[in-house]
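Q: what sequence does this backbone want?
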């Protein structure tokens, strides 16, 4: 079986083309190189975190009802519903707990209340994004302008809320807020009875907008790199990301920076707390 389909290799990005018959072929398929996918190997995951479209999109059959889809689609749908229910309950209960006056007298309580709200928003937006993908790939929604708004994260605001950028921002903000909780607990362990609750609360109110602003700036480049791609062989429209070389470097740097910085903060905070607890107990 030849790799170039007898000189008519339509596979992109060095994909290998296979035919079912060398004399009178009726079917051709592409075998993609690593980090490429699609029926023509036209999509790439190099330098990017995997999205729902990459992992799950091709499992969804167009013009096929949900209950007739593949088992993996039904399984993911059931898991998504379960995740949403549990996440919604968890987020709602967390908000009820941390919104009390006794919880927000210190910065830690404000951080935890904010993370509770973020977790509720995140699971809700993820669920909506999942169902959007299902409906798009099943061709239930075919309005291109609606798809484009969701793809490019532009106005109106209703569609902007359900985008990759917002999910990235919320997840990253949640990680940084948890790091702030770790830092405050470390300072509490160091200062002991001298810890100022009022100062802690004031710092938290100043830190919150800074975190959200910086995380938004970190991913503000993403919408400009998104575009719609019409799959000619299948009735599908994909929302893909095409970063320039400089943006790929920037994206990699941002991800590494977030990961390493948060890891160091949490590690040092935990280490400080352990040392302070050990010192306190050794004095008893």
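A:
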């Amino acid at each position: 079986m030849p790799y170039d389909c007898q000189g008519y290799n339509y596979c992109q990005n060095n994909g290998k083309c296979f035919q079912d018959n060398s004399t009178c072929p009726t079917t051709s398929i592409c075998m993609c190189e690593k980090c490429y996918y699609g029926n023509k190997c036209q999509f790439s995951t190099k330098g990017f975190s995997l999205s729902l479209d990459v992992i799950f999109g091709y499992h969804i059959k167009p013009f096929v009802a949900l209950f007739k889809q593949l088992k993996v689609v039904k399984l993911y749908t059931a898991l998504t519903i379960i995740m949403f229910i549990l996440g919604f309950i968890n987020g709602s209960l967390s908000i009820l707990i941390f919104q009390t006056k006794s919880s927000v007298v210190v910065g830690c309580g404000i951080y935890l209340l904010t993370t509770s709200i973020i977790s509720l928003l995140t699971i809700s937006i993820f669920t909506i994004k999942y169902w959007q993908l299902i409906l798009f790939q099943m061709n239930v929604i075919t309005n291109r302008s609606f798809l484009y708004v969701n793809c490019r994260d532009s106005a109106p605001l209703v569609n902007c809320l359900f985008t990759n950028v917002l999910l990235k921002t919320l997840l990253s903000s949640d990680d940084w807020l948890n790091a702030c909780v770790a830092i405050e607990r470390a300072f509490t362990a160091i200062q002991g009875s001298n810890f100022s609750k009022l100062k802690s609360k004031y710092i938290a109110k100043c830190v919150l907008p800074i975190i959200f602003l910086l995380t938004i700036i970190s991913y503000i480049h993403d919408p400009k790199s998104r575009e719609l791609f019409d799959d000619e062989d299948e009735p599908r429209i994909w929302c893909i990301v095409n970063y320039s070389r400089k943006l790929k470097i920037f994206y990699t740097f941002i991800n590494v920076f977030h990961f390493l910085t948060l890891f160091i903060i949490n590690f040092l905070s935990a280490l400080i707390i352990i040392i302070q607890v050990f010192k306190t107990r050794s004095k008893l």
